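Per reviewer request, we include the raw input and output of the structure prediction for the construct analysed in the revised manuscript.
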Amino acid sequence: MTTQIHGPTSHSYFSQRLRLHYVDWGNPEAPPLLLIHGGRDHCRNWDWVAEALREDYHIIAPDLRGHGDSQWMVGGTYTINDFIYDIAQLIHQALPTPLTIIGHSLGGNIALRYTGLYPENVRKVVAIEGLGPSPQMLEDMEAGSQPERVRNWIDSLRDLSGRLPRRYQTLEEAYQRMKTENPHLSAERAHHLTVHGMNQNEDGTYSWKFDNYVRVFAPRGFDMEEAGELWAQIDCPTLLFRGTESWASDPHADGRAGYFKDARVENIEKAGHWVHHDQLDEFLRLTRDFLAD
């Protein structure tokens, strides 16, 4: 007898001795689809996308290390290669290949780099603003010398070491913060993301689940040459989303789309950084068409 599963089931796996969490939306006989969230986010960020696609795919959505219900690392540096290793381990342990990957922001960056490293494992890849800082932003970030960047990194870590996670007296207070962060969110979606993104502390207050140290990037910064080399190794069709109201620049206009062998760019109107939240129906329409090709 088959039991109808209305929501995802929670599971754990291990990577570099960390217990990491993911949710599984069932339908294991269907083609595999991996959803990777962005920085300071969590796996339940994908619930609306997963609900729409679960009949056609076996969907798994992880919490990255330092996020959601996954363990935090010891130390203060979360590197892109550590995240990629975690995803490689999850695929190795829980998903057959070739698979499809959709990632947002940091998750899109991870998805594209993993695909460049293991092109034989990925059927198609979708990245929502996953190319990292724009060329102009990178130029501004790299204005100082490498010693200056390392000193700034040390200062940032030292500041965070004395910073306690913010505590909200009520979920309503945290919900208002979520709405401020992304004014495009409906009340229902903002509430859902808040509930799944908070832990209740022993004193009854609430704090976001992510580790504060994920706010700090390694002093080496974003290596555009390295990223471009990996993007050029991607053999499968690639879909790049951008919200026109976001800080991200157009990959066609800034030249980054040129690194890919087979990339399509979609600039979505009336959407910011979270395209899949801000314009869900349009995102799903374009994504379904892309995956069906």
